[in-house]
């Protein structure tokens, strides 16, 4: 008796699951707190999709893979997920890891909807296989630079570590600030201990220090050293990459972690969908959800809508990015081709510069809107 070959994924109606890969940093050196929030959003949306009947009657199944902030693990996960029949891949927080995943997904013809990574050059060449929800780094960090200028800061110092992501951020800041009378002083946090870094800040007469470094190390000891140095009284500490968004920042730093402005990709007030999802995420996480959790939820919501409307064929999914029009938790999501960006891009989600209120560090204040 001959066994018939398996039916193509695009043609199946047997009730088998529709598989989506999910890339998430869940172990160190990945940012585990961000990964936990991202996964909570992905899983909540998947559960709601299945409660509503799945994809044409087929359940949606997330195949979660821990990237641990390792580009090689992300590449291996893409290979594995493609072999397991995933119709698309979602997620990832770390930009360098997402870039590796996007490059591999492009090579294999596997659609990838990136949730949270912002590096402009997510792929070296334009690709039809990759789309992104998070704003490009150049967009958000220019808004942050405008905030610095509006607050009267012209001499900006950056404490930075070797990384494509941090180097890109420094370049964006310098290119935006220089024509407007601003300067950027680079301090190598890999070579300078916090005390020496404070010496460099004092000598450079900077009025703002931006943390382009990992959390908790070396961000936390740098913040503590600057806060306690009388020469640096009044120094603005900023963290455009969003380290203060998560509860762990407040837990570790307490009052020292307040008034550190960062980029947050949430509207000032959520609409009805965002409020409902925010409450469900809070229950799931046991704490206030970050914007990363909302990014995760929106990612699966977009993919599910696309799969219902256009089917589960990988090539068909890739062709459907420009037809997406989905109401997400933070507004209407559409993808376009944006100059300088090689992937399909939501241009743009809400961008705010916020900080933790010194009077109530669990509360956020909007300092600037993009």
Features:
alpha/beta, seven-stranded mixed beta sheet, 39% helix, 20% strand, globular, disordered N terminus
Task: Tell me the Rg in angstroms.
Answer: 21 Å
- The end-to-end span amounts to 65 Å
Task: Determine the structural class based on helices, strands and strand pairing.
Answer: alpha/beta
In what range is the share of β-strand residues?
15-25%
Shape category = globular
Descriptive overview:
With 370 residues, the protein is α/β, with parallel strands linked by helices. It has helices at residues 32-51, 71-83, 95-108, 137-150, 164-177, 194-204, 219-228, 247-253, 272-285, 291-310, 314-319, and strands at residues 18-24, 60-66, 88-91, 112-114, 130-132, 155-160, 183-188, 208-212, 236-238, 262-264, 326-328, 331-333, 336-337, 344-345, 352-357, 360-369. Strand 1 (18-24), helix 1 and strand 2 (60-66) form a beta-alpha-beta unit. Helix 1 crosses helix 9 (272-285). It is globular, with a radius of gyration of 21 Å.
Could you give a quick summary of the protein structure above?
The protein has 370 residues and is α/β, with parallel strands linked by helices. It has 11 helices and 16 strands. The protein has a 7-stranded mixed beta sheet, sandwiched between helices. Strands 7-6-8-9 form a 4-stranded parallel beta sheet, sandwiched between helices. Strands 10-15-16 form a 3-stranded antiparallel beta sheet.
């Amino acid at each position: 008796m001959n066994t018939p070959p398996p039916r193509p994924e695009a043609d199946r109606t047997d009730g088998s699951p529709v598989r989506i890969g999910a890339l998430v940093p869940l172990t160190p050196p990945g940012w585990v707190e961000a990964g936990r929030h991202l996964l909570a959003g992905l899983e909540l949306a998947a559960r709601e999709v299945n409660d509503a009947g799945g994809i044409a009657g087929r359940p949606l199944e997330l195949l979660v893979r821990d990237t641990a902030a390792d580009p090689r693990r992300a590449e291996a996960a893409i290979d594995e997920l493609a072999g397991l029949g995933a119709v698309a891949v979602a997620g990832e927080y770390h930009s360098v890891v997402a870039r590796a995943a996007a490059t591999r997904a492009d090579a294999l013809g596997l659609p990838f909807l990136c949730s949270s990574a912002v590096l402009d050059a997510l792929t070296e060449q334009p690709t039809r296989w990759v789309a992104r929800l998070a704003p490009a780094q150049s967009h958000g960090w220019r808004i942050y630079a405008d905030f610095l200028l509006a607050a009267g800061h012209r001499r900006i110092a950056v404490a930075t570590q070797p990384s494509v992501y941090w180097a890109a951020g420094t370049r964006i800041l310098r290119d935006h600030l220089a024509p407007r009378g601003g300067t950027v002083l680079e301090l190598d946090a890999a070579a300078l201990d916090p005390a020496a870094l404070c010496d460099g800040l004092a000598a450079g007469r900077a009025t703002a220090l931006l943390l382009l470094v990992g959390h908790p190390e070396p961000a936390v000891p740098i913040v503590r050293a600057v806060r306690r140095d009388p020469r640096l009284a009044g120094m603005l500490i900023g963290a455009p990459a969003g380290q203060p968004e998560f509860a762990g920042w407040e837990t570790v730093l307490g009052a020292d972690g307040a008034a550190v402005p960062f980029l947050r990709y949430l509207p000032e007030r959520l609409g009805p969908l965002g409020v409902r999802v925010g409450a469900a995420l809070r229950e799931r996480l046991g704490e206030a959800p970050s914007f990363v959790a909302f990014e995760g939820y929106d990612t699966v919501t977009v993919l599910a809508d696309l799969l219902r409307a256009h089917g589960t064929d990988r090539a068909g999914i890739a062709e459907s990015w420009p037809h997406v029009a989905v109401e997400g938790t933070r507004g209407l999501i559409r993808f376009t081709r944006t100059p300088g960006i090689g992937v399909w891009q939501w241009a743009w989600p809400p961008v705010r510069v916020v900080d933790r209120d010194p009077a109530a560090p669990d509360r956020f204040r909007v300092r600037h809107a993009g």
